[in-house]
Input
Amino acid sequence: MDYVCLKCQRKLVDRDNDWYCEYCQISWPKIHGLDCFFDRDDYWGEISRDEMKQLLASIERDGWQKANRELAQKDPQRLKFIYNPGRADWRFYVPLDNQSVVLDAGCGLGAITLPLAEVVKEVVAFDTSCERARFVQLRAAKENKTNIQVLVASLFNPPFKKQSFDLIVMNGLLEWVGAGKIDGNPGEIQIEALKKMKELLKPGGCLYIGIENRFGLPLLTGRGLDHSGLRFTSIMPRFLARIYAKIRRKSDYRTYTYTRRGYEKLLNDAGFENIDFFLPWPGYNDTRIIVPHRNLNALRYLVLNIMSSNSFVKKIVKIAIRIPFVLRLYRFLFFSFGIVANKNKQ
Ligand SMILES: C[S@@+](CC[C@H](N)C(=O)[O-])C[C@H]1O[C@@H](n2cnc3c(N)ncnc32)[C@H](O)[C@@H]1O
Ligand SMILES: [Zn+2]
Output
């Protein structure tokens, strides 16, 4: 995929150490072979920045086997989170083929990037964090995936021509974009982010979002933490969540999640259409099964035959789900959603 200037949108020239706009005479560096279009020193991670740096050093020094063994010793769940290809299984619900060009926005450690590259022509993956982008670059090289292009960039200022992609993935990203900007209403920032992604889609292109449900049962019952690191903030009115987060964590509440209807509205406001919902189980970051939101029979089967009943809440759900009204309602209390939305064809 060609890069364009962040200022004038003209194609950039590939030089030894940077990407250069001949018209604006601005350049963007290549750092350790990584194209960098974002100059803020950002880090977000499931593991700390120091651990991430150590991991990268260990991969380069001792190879992947040893590095992964060390990672697994610390926390086996991490390996699953990074390497479980099931996290991209929603790809069977979107129109993709071996000619598709895909953008993985906020690619993190590449859990979605790598499995997608198996089935499409090209995956472009970017993240604001250099260390995470570097990890994906090393992973792609190790797997001999020559159809993956990795760069450091922000979703608000991506170096691509408009209408370049058939599919854009925002897995675990939309909820964080309001936190990355300190000014402005998080909801409006989320719409701005969606509009940016829409510009990059080809006409008729498709956006996939993996994200939590604001009223997911674990959040409603206080078993799970919201993105604020606190319980119950997602279900509070926003103003209350902001006051509560200020008192408890001395920080603003900016990681907005929504109900199904809320996501529909957000996507409509950004100009998307044909919005379709899926229920990934157990969650969008550890998917084993994906049920279309409208398929009640499949949902009943999942709850009765596949879901465990290892907690009190789950036991209640298993009994109550036989009542048609509860089955319908349960979809709206599912922990997370996979959302597929389209850009119109004109
Ligand atoms: C929860 S992680 C999800 C990572 C990956 N998509 C996955 O599913 O494993 C969110 C990622 O988005 C990145 N991110 C946050 N704000 C961003 C922005 N404005 N532009 C690009 N990436 C961003 C973070 O650095 C982080 O890697
Ligand atoms: Zn320029």
